[in-house]
Amino acid sequence: MAVNTAFTDACFRRPTDYTPVWFMRQAGRYLPGYKVLRKKHEVLEIAHTPELAATVSLEPVDRLGVDAAILFADIMLVPMAMGVDVKIVDAVGPVIDDPVAGSQAIERLNAIDASDISFLSDTIRLIKQSAKVPLIGFSGAPFTLASYLIEGRPSRTWIKTKRFMYAEPALWHALMDKLTRAIGIYLDEQVHAGVDALQLFDSWVGCLSPADFRQYVLPYNRQIFAQLNKHKVPRIMFGTDTGAMLADIASVDCEVVGVDWRTDIASAQKLLPNKALQGNLDPAVLLSGWPVVETQTKALLDHVPSRTGFIFNLGHGVLPDTSPDTLKGLVDYVHEH
Ligand code: CP3
């Protein structure tokens, strides 16, 4: 299958004919086909059924003309493979009835191997049979996964997580170490199955101070990327609210850094001269009418100092009420501008 390489070329900061674009959470909740499927199947059921997951991954590629596909999965598949009982509750998100509170829960976490995620490898192989664009595999990062394990549900303060990290540093490092190993195996297996790029979602790491990020998180993210170097596929480090951490993120062995709209893209390019950048339109712009989308997109594209090594994306995931037609218009606009 001939693959459009604009996305992977941009990851390696090679010149491309146009600026490639894809959207975080493009394979999900705003898509008509996905909504129909969700009437019959739970999110985790779709993620565990290769034919369904492959269909959802491909829907935005056909409909929007994006330059990359993303695997339909969830960051909580790693803790689930480690033996944690996770439920996805509608309008809430991942819920764990028995959150991690001490050493026993950490000891109980299983190491994983490829056989624990064979369903994911099957999904990847299915997508690769028909995708005409590169396929992005992904995992949650250790901090973001630890935050769900400790909070037991989505949080916007991460107080339990921080208290655990500060008050129980030895346990924190034991937990991060176990997650790091499992994530490494999970991502290795995705490459073996055929993904063309990898993204690590550290969605909530921006809640930490830069010093705490350096001490409690950065060594694990660096370790994950360093051990992925052998695969030669481009690696994307993504987080939100990471503006104050970019000088540290520069030390991560990855090709691409994803930033959200709170970070100025030109300043980010200055701090990260050796990385490609991905971002960073505020997803709320897409709910505000086409003239706003066009003005903001033009302003962003004109503001990026170098379009070589730039991948257009939102600063975070597509919001549920976004119109697929607006996204399609945005893809065309970025390709033409
Ligand atoms: O949004 C991010 O920050 C990306 C990282 C992330 C994913 N899942 C990746 C994902 C995070 C933080 C999660 C946790 C999670 N899982 C949440 C957010 C909860 C919170 O704290 O706000 C939710 C709602 C889930 C459950 C879930 N995962 C649903 C309902 C779906 C399907 C459709 C959708 O988009 O809502 C997923 C799929 C999912 N989670 C994907 C990814 C990369 C695949 C789809 C895609 O990216 O296109």
Description:
With 337 residues, the chain is an alpha/beta fold. It has one domain: TIM Barrel, CATH 3.20.20.210. Helix content is 47%, strand content 12%. The strands form two sheets. Strands 1-4-5-6-7-8-9 form a seven-stranded parallel beta sheet. Strands 2-3 form a two-stranded antiparallel ribbon. Strand 7 (256-258), helix 14 (265-271) and strand 8 (276-281) form a beta-alpha-beta unit. The longest helix has 25 residues, at 169-193. Bound molecules: coproporphyrinogen III. Residues 24-29, 43, 70, 72-75, 88, 93-94, 138, 144, 154, 201, 203, 317 line the site of coproporphyrinogen III (CP3).
CATH topology: TIM Barrel
Count of separate structural domains: 1
The small-molecule ligands in this entry are: coproporphyrinogen III
Choose one word for the global shape. globular
Order of neighbouring strands in the sheet with most strands: 1-4-5-6-7-8-9
The overall average pLDDT, rounded, is: 97
Please provide the count of β strands: 9
- Give the oligomer, counting copies of the same chain as homo and different chains as hetero: single chain
Query: Describe the biggest sheet?
Result: 7 strands, parallel
Q: Using only CA atoms, what is the Rg?
A: 19 Å
The chain-level structural class is alpha/beta
Helix-strand topology string = HHHHEHEEHHEHHHEHHEHEHEHEH
Instruction: Report, as a whole number of angstroms, the end-to-end distance.
Output: 28 Å
> In the CATH hierarchy, what is the architecture at level 2?
Alpha-Beta Barrel
Helical fraction: 40-55%
* CATH class wording: Alpha Beta
> What percentage of the residues does DSSP assign to strands (E)?
5-15%
Low-pLDDT residue spans:
none
**Helical run tally:** 16
